[in-house]
Amino acid sequence: VTYAEVYERLRAEPTPAQLAELEALWSQGGVRVYTATSTELLENLIDVLTPACKELLQNTPLLTGARRVAEAEARLGVRSPVIMAEGPSDAELVQALVAWREAQAPA
Q: pTM of this prediction?
């Protein structure tokens, strides 16, 4: 039997310039929703954000397909609205995002 290690999770390490670009984009309304498909990903995201982005996160909906991620968000002190997909698949996440977006459209 031969084993090959082919999967490795690495934490993102954005540069200060990338974080400044994200902060500018977000503060101008360019980030309307964020997604996390695991608690580890959510924790890492929160860890790398600037203080201003963490503040913006409070009012930016989280799109997820896992109840444990939504629970972790609250435990981590984030109080943003949650868009709960039926499950974690790409199709389910997109479906939930489309339904949320349609609900945001003026009547």
A: 0.86
